[in-house]
Amino acid sequence: MKPVLIVSHADADGHVIAEQMRRNLAMVPAFNVSTVVDPARTRDHRTWMRLGEIREIDASEIIFFVDLMFAPASFIAEADALSTFAMERPATRFFVLDHHPLPLERLRRAPNLGAAYRSDVVDCTFGRASSLMVIAALLEKQPTRVSAESEDQKLLAEGIRRAAAIGGPLPGEKLLALIRFECWDELIELGRDDPSFHRLPRGFRPARAKMSKILRRLDRRAADLVKSDTAPGSGGRSAAMSYDLELLDAGVVPTPSPASLDASDLEAIVMLLELAAIYLTRDPNSSFSREELIEKARELSGDALRLDEMDLKIVLGKAGFLKKLAGGRYRLK
């Protein structure tokens, strides 16, 4: 098993994106995925200057930094800090993904660091974007091609926004547990709660703010889930539910359980090839052969998912994230 770590911004959409990434990456049997979303350690762009505080990185082979922006006023120092950090750990692979522009040229200094910029929040994940990413997009102020499909969807986004407010009891591990265990009804109820309990200047919950009944109930529920050994799909609440958001479904095929996947599963193959392509892209003119891409995908997946070369070749012929070049080479679009 390869220990894989997701490090995400501790704001509302950061929690949702982290869970989408966790679900997608957990489809690869070789990946043992854990997540860090921490109001103290991943609160904002200053995270890049304090990466040593995220001790979980030391025990991981592959690191995904998602929804962590680089500030326009300080991106040079931040990008240099991340590149140096990565180069000091040559055996570890790093990926950066965000819906804000990235200092791509400076990040390319580290050969073990891949980066991708997705301008629409709904695309800010590796692998398939489920309805979770619609919620993530609704939580951001950036333009997006998606919109709320129902009142419940709007209320769920508002509930997650309120739950993620810094200074409250839920940001970080507890909110991640509520999303992972699909506590949609309770989060919708929080979104419907009296607004007087949720005056959140700049996304912060004032220290003396009174907590509503539903917020206190969610805090207790989240604490129980954090301590629980029951994981989705193993007999807990989520085992009886779609692994996708049924109440948000807009024609999206539900994500299959990781236990049901095999080496020919198209979803896992596409995600691994996408990661391999990003890893092999060192500058805007980078190209790679089919053999190089397949080799990198196999290297990332490990022995637990024995990828068939014929399956990979078939997928490569139709991969939407690749541009085919002369001489049988490819480039990331």
What share of residues is helical?
25-40%
Termini Cα gap: 31 Å
The figure for the number of domains is 2
Over all CA atoms, what is the radius of gyration?
20 Å
Mean pLDDT: 86
Number of helices: 11
Multimerization status: single chain
Q: What fraction of residues sit in β-strands?
A: 5-15%
Show unreliable segments: 231-261
Largest sheet: 5 strands, parallel
Category by helix and strand content: alpha/beta
Compile the SSE list and pairings.
Blueprint: E1 2-8, H1 12-25, E2 31-36, E3 62-66, H2 75-87, E4 93-98, H3 104-107, E5 113-117, H4 131-139, H5 151-163, H6 173-180, H7 184-192, H8 213-227, H9 266-280, E6 288-289, H10 290-301, H11 309-316, E7 322-324, E8 329-332
Parallel strand pairs: 1-2, 1-3, 3-4, 4-5
Antiparallel strand pairs: 6-8, 7-8
Helix pairs in contact: 1-4, 1-6, 4-5, 5-7, 6-8, 9-10, 9-11
